[in-house]
Design brief:
The complex is a heterodimer of chains A (about 450) and B (about 200).
Chain A: H1 19-44, H2 49-66, H3 85-116, H4 126-130, H5 135-154, H6 172-175, H7 183-213, H8 220-247, H9 260-285, H10 294-325, H11 328-338, H12 344-361, H13 365-369, H14 371-398, H15 406-428, H16 440-444
Chain B: E1 7-12, H1 15-27, E2 34-36, H2 44-48, H3 55-81, H4 94-120, E3 141-146, H5 154-163, E4 168-172, H6 176-179, H7 183-193
Antiparallel strand pairs in B: 1-3, 1-4, 2-3
Helix pairs in contact in B: 3-4
Chain lengths: ~450, ~200
């Protein structure tokens, strides 16, 4: 405790990505592939056949409930026709892709936020935040390919003739949204946003790495990074919202929620903070980040605790208004999830993992300062939010044919492995500590 | 009124010297009555060996009390006392209760914390503050040592304080009035003198 006397010229650490960590990362991917293949085989053999049968009945019920409402479209039943096993895999890829791309983006957003907020405490772990950016372009490419292959499976609005009044599948509500929701514009937004995020990641990385080499003690690079971060945050604010409508909300095309962008932001952000805490603890276990102590961990813990509550607040705000107003065109979204044997356990499960668990476990000061508590909560929160993505994406596209099973977990682990591999590879390039950062000293002496 | 020296008051100009002094004195077995600083000094609480406050636990308790009261109140009103159907929901519809439960939890917690703070700091209307040195809210750190609670003599303590870096060492005693504030005096003063701060000596 007390004062740490550190020679700031001599704090640099060089991370190498090999040995046990690399083995474990690849092991996660390996297990993921095995689970994925097993799950796919079960699906191919028609393991879900009985479910499917029951589901058709159920979907009709749901549809009849929905058609009590104003527009009375039988959205639940017919559109998707018969179900093929590969449809579920396409949706799984979309789900994991969106989840991990979002986490990567929000981890990088958190990095830029520290510059804009002029905050000194996290300087020692800035590189841990910065390297989230590594997954953004890869995730973008995976999502692009998934969209090109399976857009009809995932997105109802991409079907032919949906905006054509003479077509039998004409849908007036979707037709009214085609100015925004059409394939060329969707692809344009997707490519534009992902490339600009990648660009900001690239250039901010360059600036902070250049600072490492600059021994003159100026704040030139710091100010430059700050200006770039402001620009990024402005772009991020707009693009993240639009992305959440595009990638997630447009799956349930008829339905909309005005706080959806916020809600998605909160979910991604809390997961990114959970990953961040986990990375810091993993690096410390390996003997890196010697100057990071329980005070820094305490701050990460507060963010994890706070953003968990923030997510719950937005989740509930969205739910309560729809539940209370009871307007059929809005409630259909929750009927799909609540009146379903497949999704109802998940629906309540994520409240436990994403709200109750972090809320009660991380409430005390001591818990936030203990590495084991933080590890447990971070893992539970990450898994909880992954389940949330199943709930956000699968019911809208697959109805009762989806679920949270082997293929979902398998795909998630494959993506996690790629995410970790890219992350740690990025971390091993250049030093682990931003050496000439003007706020390094403040971070070293940080005390809560 | 007769004054008797009760406290030794060390005046420190620098926070680092202060923290080191506190550690050094405690190592020698000196019992420090209290340290006053114009701003929060990091690591001072650790050096003084203070335990963590019971306030967070009180906050949780009051919060839990608020949650319980809110749920009982709403269930009783909406379920038994005056049942109403709103939006086709059941009489006791838990999601509807969440906002009010949340607000009452915060309210109970906030009021409870304010009250707890007054209790923990012994703040009351008739409180007469014991001010060791008026510079404690300006530019000096003040360390007070209760002579009665230490086995060392006054002179020994004085030398010790100077050794660890005190700029001045003064004696300080309090009037009976300051030592033992009386609610009766406070009320009678209100009637006889009006609202004044006559009980406090305002001179340095």
């Amino acid at each position: 405790m007390a004062h740490v006397d550190v020679d700031l010229k001599n704090v640099q650490e060089q991370f190498t990505f090999d040995g046990k960590l690399k083995k474990n990362v690849l092991l996660i991917g390996g297990i993921g592939v095995v689970l994925f293949v097993l799950g796919a085989i079960f699906l191919m053999m028609g393991g879900g056949h009985d479910d499917h049968h029951a589901a058709v009945q159920h979907a009709t019920e749901v549809a009849s409930v929905a058609s009590d409402g104003a527009h009375g479209d039988a959205h639940g039943g017919g559109h998707h026709g018969e179900f093929h096993w590969y449809q579920r895999i396409i949706v799984d890829f979309w789900m994991s892709g969106v989840f991990f791309t979002g986490v990567a983006l929000l981890g990088f957003f958190f990095f830029a936020l520290q510059y804009v907020a002029n905050s000194g405490w996290p300087t020692l772990i800035m590189r841990v935040m910065l390297n989230f950016r590594q997954f953004i372009p890869v995730g973008g490419i995976v999502l692009l390919i998934t969209f090109l292959v399976g857009s009809h499976t995932i997105f109802h609005w991409t079907h032919d003739g949906i905006a054509d009044p003479n077509s039998p599948t004409y849908d007036a509500i979707i037709a009214g949204k085609t100015d925004f929701l059409n394939v060329p514009f969707f692809l344009f937004r997707m490519v534009l946003f992902v490339s600009i995020w990648t660009f900001f990641g690239f250039i901010l990385n360059k600036v902070t790495k250049a600072e490492d080499q600059d021994m003159s003690g100026t704040t030139k690079y710091f100010r430059k990074a700050q200006r770039l971060s402001v620009a990024f945050l402005i772009f991020f604010g707009i693009s993240e919202s639009i992305t959440s409508w595009d990638w997630i909300m447009s799956i349930d095309t008829h339905w909309f929620s005005t706080l959806f962008g916020w809600y998605i932001l909160a979910g991604w952000l809390v997961t990114a903070v959970a990953f961040m805490s986990l990375f810091v603890l993993i690096l410390q276990d390996m003997g890196y980040l010697k100057l990071v102590n329980e005070n820094h961990l305490h701050d990460l813990g507060k963010f994890l605790f706070g953003f968990s509550i923030f997510w719950s607040y937005l989740w509930f705000s969205q739910f309560l208004l729809i539940y209370y107003a009871n307007i059929p065109e809005e409630t259909v979204y929750f009927i799909d999830r609540l009146k379903s044997d497949t999704y109802a356990p998940l629906f309540f499960g994520i409240l436990v993992t994403n709200f109750l668990f972090p809320f009660f476990v991380l409430m005390t000061r001591d818990a936030k300062r203990k590495t084991i508590m933080m590890k447990i909560v971070a893992v539970v929160v990450i898994f909880g939010h992954f389940m949330e993505y199943c709930l956000l994406i699968v019911p809208g596209s697959l109805k009762e044919n989806g679920g949270f099973g082997l293929t979902e977990i398998g795909t998630g682990m494959i993506f996690l492995s790629i995410f970790l591999y890219l992350y740690f590879t990025g971390l091993s390039k250049g030093g682990l500590i931003p050496q000439n950062h003007p706020m390094l000293e403040e971070s070293v002496h940080h005390h809560t | 009124m007769e004054k008797n020296t009760n406290y030794l008051v060390g005046v420190f100009g620098d926070q680092d010297i202060l923290v080191k002094a506190v550690k050094a004195l405690r190592k020698k077995g000196v019992k420090i009555y209290e340290v006053f600083t114009p701003y929060p000094v990091h690591f001072l609480e650790d050096a003084l060996g203070y335990k963590r406050s019971w306030m967070p636990r009180a906050a949780f308790g009051f919060g839990a009390l608020g949650t319980t009261c809110a749920i009982l109140l709403q269930s009783w009103i909406m379920g038994y006392e005056w049942p109403m159907i709103i939006g086709g929901k059941g009489f006791i519809a838990i999601p509807d209760f969440v906002p009010i439960t949340f607000e009452l939890t915060v309210l109970f917690s906030a009021f409870g914390m304010a009250g707890s703070f007054f209790v923990s700091q012994d703040l009351k209307p008739h409180k007469v503050p014991q001010i060791f040195d008026r510079r404690q809210s300006d530019d000096k750190h003040i360390m007070a040592i209760d002579l009665a609670k230490n086995s060392l003599s006054e002179d020994e303590l004085k030398t010790l304080l100077q050794e660890v870096g005190a700029e001045e060492v003064n004696n300080k005693s309090f009037t009976e009035r300051e030592k033992k504030a009386s609610f009766f005096d406070y009320v009678s003063d209100l009637f006889t003198k009006g609202v004044t701060d006559s009980a406090r000596e305002l001179k340095g």
